[in-house]
Design goal:
Blueprint lengths: L2 H13 L15 H21 L8 H15 L4
Helix pairs in contact: 1-2
Length: about 80
């Protein structure tokens, strides 16, 4: 699992006041927890995009495509 995603999982567990295991690879999520985890991911994406400057790109479609690629790179997803 990507280190940033592991960090988000730990933050999610802390938000839910769940006592996380010492080994982050031991995390398992159940359906009740997935919504909180998904919200953490979406908030991280939003924060990243707000901090990234796409003003120099003339085409909105090109800016969106670049933003999508940037998010994949940020989360190390191929």
């Amino acid at each position: 699992m990507n280190e940033r995603i592991k960090q988000l999982a730990i933050e999610c567990a802390n938000l839910m006041e769940w006592n996380p295991p010492h080994d982050p690879d031991a995390y398992t999520f159940y359906s009740d927890n997935l919504e909180t985890f998904a919200k953490a991911i979406i908030l991280e994406c939003s924060k990243y995009l707000k901090e990234t400057d796409y003003d120099d790109i003339d085409s909105p479609n090109e800016a969106l495509e670049l933003a999508a690629d940037d998010l994949l790179d940020y989360f190390e997803i191929k």
